[in-house]
Amino acid sequence: MLQLFFILCSGADSEILAECSQGERNKYAGIGATVFFTAVIAFIASSYALYTVFDNAYTASFFGLVWGLLIFNLDRFIVSTIRKRDKFGSELLQATPRIILAVIIAIVISKPLEMKIFEKEINQVLLEQKNELTLANKDQIALQYTPAIEELNNDITALKTEITTQEAATNALYDTYISEAEGTAGTKLLGKGPVYKEKRDKHDAALKELNTLKETNAQKITALISQITLLNNQYTTSVTDSQPIIDGFDGLMARITALNKLPWLPSFFIFLLFLAIETSPIIAKLLSPKGTYDYKLEEEESVVKSWVTQKVKQRDLLVATDESLNNKIYADIAEEKAIYDYKKQKVEELLKLQADSFHKLQMKNL
After folding, report:
1. Whether pLDDT at 39 is above 80
2. How far apart are CA 106 and CA 257, in angstroms?
3. Rounded to 5 degrees, what angle do the CA atoms 74, 29, 71 make?
4. Using CA atoms, how far apart are residues 26 and 232, in angstroms rounded to an integer?
5. d(Cα 168, Cα 210) in Å, to the nearest integer?
6. What Pfam families does its record include (predicted)?
7. Is 18 helix (H, G, I), strand (E, B) or coil?
8. How far apart are CA 53 and CA 252, in angstroms?
9. Which range among 59-63, 96-100, 151-155, 226-230 shows the weakest confidence by mean pLDDT?
10. Do 115 and 49 touch, CB atoms closer than 8 A?
11. 3-class DSSP state of 169
12. Which residues contact 213 (CB under 8 A, 6 or more apart)?
């Protein structure tokens, strides 16, 4: 039962193989088993690849099954259409397009399995890429907020500098009137005279202005700090909102790109393995000698071809004979007077009816 199933997978004619030796049946059962298990591997590989896309096992399994059946049908078609020839060159020329197709199928099948085999290494590469994307994303978002924050910080610095300048001027006035009172500067008269009072009043006015300036600038600085806090919160929110997109950067294309960044030699050997599996039925048929099955299949095809050729020639002969007879029959009829007179009468009646109809139509239009 299992042998019959694998023979069915090979695309060989089971009725012809039933008349062949056991060894011939085993050969095609082996070819069919290779085709079947290649399709199974294709199902597993495509299901994993599609799972990275849909994140749903049922959906991935369904489309993986469709893909596995497609690969099975292609492999079965490739193997079943290769015919043994008398010359190896003719066989190789016949198999070349199929070998190219087998190479393409091997690449498609091996890639998802490579991603599964090197999953840990790919995750490490993806983690590094995500970290780089996170830093780049923060820098990019910061470009939207940094200029405004720097401008606000400059405004705060200017307000603080204004206070510092005013404090320095007020302190200088303080030193001036103290020096006047001590007699170490100004009039150099010890005591609190009119000049001292004038300088003291000037300092007191500057001190009052300084206190007012501190109060005003403190309110302005508080408002500016609130704006900076708001911008910082907006920046944090933007980074937080965009982070899930970066965290989700592990789809099929991202994993293939990460796989390509790993050393190529292990992936190449895995590809060679699947290429060997995929092309083994074709190579087996090319290298194997012409067997009983091939001779019987060639005989059946020859019989069908001969029968079809015979039928075509018979139909061509029938058409030629029928045409010759018709020509002779119509030539004899054309010479008969009665048929000529009858045909002439009918044509005259038809012309009269056409003339009457045309006359009625013209009268109606008038």
Report:
1. yes
2. 19
3. 15
4. 75
5. 10
6. DUF4407
7. helix
8. 6
9. 96-100
10. yes
11. helix
12. 162, 163, 166
Residue identified by tokens 């393409």 is 104
Q: What is the mean pLDDT of residues 300-318?
A: 82
Predicted local distance difference test score (pLDDT) of residue 143: 86
Whole-number average pLDDT of the chain: 79
Q: Where are the domains of the chain?
A: 2-118+262-290, 137-250, 308-365
Angle at 125 between CA 119 and CA 129, to 5 degrees: 135
CA-derived radius of gyration, the chain:
50
Range scoring the smallest mean pLDDT among 42-56, 211-225, 306-320: 42-56
Q: In the numeric block, which tokens belong to residue 334?
A: 């054309």
Both tokens of 15, joined, read 């009725």
**Alpha-carbon distances, residue 136 vs 133, 141, 248, 344 (angstroms):** 5, 9, 16, 98
Other beta carbons within 10 angstroms of residue 134's beta carbon come to 16
Cα–Cα distance for residue pair 366/357, rounded to 1 Å: 15
- What is the rounded CA–CA span in Å between residue 132 and residue 174? 58
Could you tell me the two tokens for 321? 């004979």
Distance CA(303)–CA(220), nearest Å, equals 104
pTM of the model: 0.51
The arithmetic mean of pLDDT across residues 255-277, rounded, is: 81
Q: Which residue in this structure is represented by tokens 């062949």?
A: 20
